[in-house]
Amino acid sequence: MADSFAGQLLAWYDQHGRHDLPWHHDRNAYRVWVSEIMLQQTQVATVIPYFEAFMKRFPDVAALAAAPVDDVLSHWSGLGYYARARNLHKAAQQVVAEYGGEFPQQQETLEALSGIGRSTAAAIVAQAFGIRAAILDGNVKRVLARYHAIPGWPGQTAVLNQLWQHSEEHTPEDRVRDYTQAIMDLGATVCTRSRPACERCPLQPGCTAYARQETTSYPGAKPKKAKPEKTTWMVILEDHQGRILLERRPPSGIWGGLWSLPELDPAYGPEELPDACERQFGFGCSDAELISGFRHTFSHYHLHIQPARLAVTGPTGVAEETEQRWVHRDEALALGLPAPIRTLLTTPEQTALL
DNA sequence: AATTCGTGGAA
DNA sequence: TTTCCAAGAAT
Question: Which part of the chain is the HhH-GPD domain (predicted)?
Fold first, then answer.
């Protein structure tokens, strides 16, 4: 055991692992679950303040289930991947309604909940209940791809399946809670994507990539693709009370479910914006004052945001098909906005020189 | 099965 | 400045 993959890892973990992250305290299924969702594709340092605030506002699954979804989204504002927040809220209600507020302890049952996939279900089961289950996050993928010198990009199903198989093989019966934490810690602090510290690695003796001095060749790189360019108008419509118009974005797509500024067809010229606003929103506007535009890069495309500010001149009716709200700026910030929009609304607006 | 979901840190 | 990608899941 001591000289096995897991044994070597656990011995290292006892000395060098991370033992005092926020979700390690008062450990229960709820806290483990929330932390695992927040940590999806998100670094530990980014998550910590969000986790603390979230736990203060929603201390248990019942509190989360009973909260308005906008309250949940506002606590997620700036964290990204907002479907996680909506799924988290939905799953909390599922746990309360279907399981009386007690988390199921079976991996398959957890996987049926919104936002919980194979790896997250395994992590919850292992961390919260100490039940043997194999995880496969970015850290484990990197460690195993190097240890076994597995070629190819893990985005390919065939590569992913091999990594899952190795993860299953190495996961021990005993100390699964520590083992699961250990292999993630190793990936995060030793087997890093650039300049791995192989001289400090407990798995170095059996590591194929190290033996070949090819550690940085694994895992295989994602194929490159040019990012498409997209452009949009985002308008700050301000009434005489200093309130601005926000719209809820559709549940799918970028910033799904969040409140944001109304968008207009990028084909409009600046001088056409007042008429476009009147047609789309049903009230008159003054000439558009252009604000410095900026480019925001997402994983698959670049978004050019052209902000414009218009003063509302006519009466402001209530929404039709899309959900709308007139709010003061401080209220907008409390609603939970996408990070670039929050920046836009809190940065002094400068007229562009176009 | 490959793509689409954010954001910020690191190189 | 640009690129990569991190405690993945849903589609």
Answer: 38-189
pLDDT tens-digit readout, A213-269: 999 999 999 998 888 999 999 999 999 999 999 999 999 999 999 999 999 999 999
Domains of chain A: 5-217 (1.10.340.30), 229-346 (3.90.79.10)
Give per-residue pLDDT as tens, A15-74. Answer: 999 999 999 999 999 999 999 999 999 999 999 999 999 999 999 999 999 999 999 999
Residue A193: how many CB atoms within 10 A of its CB? 13
Task: Specify the pLDDT at position A352.
Answer: 44
> Which residue's CA shows the smallest distance to C1' of B11?
A194
Reported as a single tens digit per residue, the pLDDT across A304-331 is 999 999 999 877 666 567 899 999 999 9
Residue position matching structure tokens 């033992």: A19
Rounded to whole angstroms, the distance from the CA of residue A227 to the C1' of nucleotide B10 is: 21
The SS3 of residue A352 is coil
Does A78 contact strand B, using a CB cutoff of 7 Å?
A: yes
- Which helix H or strand E contains A76, and what residues bound it? helix A69-76
> What mean pLDDT do residues A132-157 have?
96
From residue A293, how far is each of A69, A161, A234, A350, A352 by CA, in Å?
Answer: 31, 44, 10, 10, 8
- What is the C-alpha to C-alpha distance for residues A102 and A96, in angstroms, rounded to an integer? 7
Q: Is A36 a catalytic residue?
A: yes
Whether the beta carbon of A42 falls within 7 A of nucleic chain B: the reply is yes
**In A 104-143, which Cβ lie closer than 7 Å to strand C?**
114-121, 123, 137-139, 141-142
Contact A91, A141 (CB under 8 A): no
Q: Which long-range contacts (CB under 8 A, 24 or more apart) does A277-281 make?
A: A277/A235, A277/A237, A277/A310, A278/A314, A281/A237, A281/A245
**Cα-flanking dihedrals φ and ψ of residue A143, to 5°?**
-60, -50
